[in-house]
Amino acid sequence: MNSYLEKVLTEVKQRNQCQPEFHQSVEEVLESLEPVFERDSIYKEAGILERIVEPERQIIFRVPWVDDNGKTQVNRGFRVEFNSALGPYKGGLRLHPSVYIGIIKFLGFEQIFKNALTGRSIGGGKGGSDFDPKGKSDMEVMRFCQSFMTELYRHIGDKTDVPAGDIGVGAREIGYLFGQYKRITNSFAAGVLTGKGLNWGGSLVRTEATGYGLVYIVEEMLKDNGNSFEGKDVVISGSGNVAIYATEKAQEMGAKVIALSDSNGYIYDPAGINLETVKCIKEVGRKRIKEYVTEHSSAEYHEGSKGIWTIKCDIALPSATQNEIDEDSAKTLVKNGVIAVGEGANMPSTPEAIEVYQKNNVLFVPAKAANAGGVATSALEMTQNGMWDSWSFEKVEAKLKNIMVDIYNTSSEVAKDYGLEGNLVAGANIAGFLKVANAMLDQGIV
């Protein structure tokens, strides 16, 4: 990085101490932007970077709730409204014990550029809590969500900030959150949350969107390099919505998905993952992935989810959590012949892992491009809500596919324009930055 970018990064680290995930996400973007600042000084003169790395608003609040034993529990809630240059803040809510302000800021910062790449009129934001829904009853989850929304409602709106789901927040949680919002505001404002139930304002394909979109953009990258999913062995980490529907779409395209995981361990099925069994375990029973081996004798279960990257595969789709592939895991993937990596989770590869991919000519599409399908379809849900309309599965899926193809083409073309052909990390970062930065220039000092 040049001295100006280094100065901005140093200030970010000084002002946001003990937030390594946020530092990592900012550094990754800034490293890509040097050719932009060399070409045009206007962004430096206008202080765009200094503004874009600082959230417009950070909200932290107490979330008290009562468990099934009648005992009061207290969690911490967060909403970071990062950048609204392109539209209302848009980004999910994450419920997980690891959540703290640094995680939310990293996710919100990524969301700025990811949302810009979709071509939709949405800004970047993120939220959540250190509440853990695992092991909680439906009533406990409901009481938590109602308390959380009792504070959050005053900060959101269909033209202000539109949350959605993320880790720990699915259809159940969105339902409880929306019900409380409706109760407090006395209004059925369908556009205030996305990921809603299909019979009360939700969109078809939203559940499948991130996983489908991941496969669509990786397929486009493979096609651009004379290849495809057909006949490939695929390893996918995670077993939530992203992993399940990436598996579904990869199988439709002729690939064999041979491994999935959860936070405890991973399953390896050389015969190919039976998706119906996984859906029954994870979506219906809310059980651990190890249950799979009781139904399929061809499968093995291994404790420790990191070991999934030792499995020989052609395509890897990390779809669990941040920094799950480190340098050693990336080297193992390369040694075992991986040809492509697509990030379904947010920032699942460390900087060292990405360097390994690039040095070994592994095709790589980063998270802010690869997993944009979820927020893109959330934006399509917002459009349908604004029209009081509902589109068919085929119409939404076609729009999703077009968006993902456009993201790939835009990232690829921008990388080439800046002398970085084939580097989709740089292409996605630069393309997203330019769209947001130019909007900020048009709007003055805000």
UniProtKB/TrEMBL annotation:
Residues given in the record as NAD(+) binding sites: T210, N241
Signal peptide span per the entry?
none
| Residues at the catalytic site | K126
Q: Where on this chain does substrate bind?
A: K90, Q111, K114, G165, S378
Example of a GO cellular component annotation carried by this entry: cytosol
Q: Which UniProt keywords apply?
A: NAD, Nucleotide-binding, Oxidoreductase
What NCBIfam families has UniProt attached to this entry? Answer: PRK09414.1 (NF006929)
Q: What is this protein called?
A: Glutamate dehydrogenase
According to its UniProt entry, this protein's organism is Iocasia fonsfrigidae
